Amino acid sequence: MMAALLLLVHPTASLAAPGLDQKAEPIQVVGRLPMNLNPSEQQEFERRTLALAAITRTKDPVTSYSCNADIEHPGTYVFVETWPSELALNNHLQTSHFKDWWQWVEPHLSGDLVINAAPTADFFPIS
User: Fold this and answer.
1) What are the backbone dihedrals phi and psi of residue 53, each rounded to the nearest 5 degrees, phi first?
2) CA–CA separation, 32 vs 21, rounded Å?
3) What's the distance, CA 78 to chain centroid?
4) pLDDT in tens, 4-27
5) pTM exceeding 0.85
6) Domains of the chain listed by start with CATH number
7) DSSP letter assigned to residue 9
8) Phi then psi for 126, rounded to 5 degrees?
9) Cα dihedral sign for 77, 46, 80, 27?
């Protein structure tokens, strides 16, 4: 989703990261979404984001998908997603459920959208 946001904000951007390409290799996406929301807009954002997450988990082949509030930066939300491939993520970015959500979110951005993506094979467990 965060990668999705990058591609919508910058249509010529790619998720290019070392070792990341259109191969059917699982990818991890982490995005920081700074928002400027009044209390009623925050409730609406959370309602829309919960609905997006439910639809995404039902209709798209996402492995894991979450949105969390950044307690150190009020108004910033962190998305952490795992997709079976970059292609699966890119297909998600073209869905009406994502595009509808983004159309509401984009005017409320209050800063730079920061997105990182990498193959899940680049991650390792902490022991």
Assistant:
1) -60, -45
2) 22
3) 8
4) 444 444 333 444 444 444 568 999
5) no
6) 26-122 (3.30.70.100)
7) H
8) -90, 125
9) negative
